[in-house]
Design goal:
Layout: E1 13-16, E2 22-28, H1 33-49, E3 53-59, H2 69-80, H3 85-94, H4 104-111, H5 116-123, H6 126-141, E4 149-152, E5 155-156, H7 164-174
Parallel strand pairs: 2-3
Antiparallel strand pairs: 1-3, 2-4, 4-5
Length: 175
């Protein structure tokens, strides 16, 4: 299967030009070193081509090998409820090496000046857990089997090889 099975929807976290004709979806895991490597590449792509591109991040926590990935996803979504999903998204990748520290997610919430009581309530909220699970199931249905996995306009991206140039080439094929 080469198609995105869960269409982009209102529950998705989006950035870039929200009305762009091109939509890049990433299924990612905040504890995955390959996703951390891809993060600045996607940021550069958005910086240089953000006017023609909408970017969607979907959670695909690989729980069997990344013990903190699901909690990191809940943390990002909880920050999103306070309008700071993308700031937390960036901090999670920048602090991936600290995920073993028991207070890292609270520390990042404090760094973003989140309302900590609200953050703590939201991290365990069943709607957030269901959102992360929905993203994950959408990835499974779309034949995602590793992170990061990208889709451009609902087509699975096979050209990505860990370089900026491979992402750019993918975009240019659709322009």
């Amino acid at each position: 299967m080469n198609k995105l099975q869960l269409p982009v929807n209102d529950r998705d976290q989006k950035t870039g030009n929200l009305k762009a004709e091109l939509t890049l979806v990433e299924y990612g895991d905040y504890q995955c070193p390959y996703c951390r490597h891809a993060h600045p590449l996607v940021q550069r792509l958005l910086q240089e081509h953000g006017s023609e591109l909408r970017f969607v991040f979907r959670h695909f926590p690989l729980r069997k090998i990344h013990a903190e990935a699901a909690m990191a996803a809940y943390t990002a979504e909880a920050a999103g409820r306070q309008g700071k999903f993308w700031q937390m998204h960036d901090l999670l990748f920048a602090n991936q090496h600290r995920f073993h520290e028991g207070t890292i997610f609270h520390d990042l919430a404090r760094k973003l000046n989140l309302d900590l009581n609200q953050f703590l309530a939201d991290v365990g909220d069943m709607e957030i857990v269901a959102k992360v699970e929905s993203d994950f199931r959408g990835g499974i249905y779309s034949s995602v089997n590793r992170t990061p996995t990208f889709f451009l306009n609902e087509e699975k991206v096979y050209l990505y090889n860990g370089t900026y140039e491979s992402l750019l080439t993918t975009i240019e094929l659709f322009v």
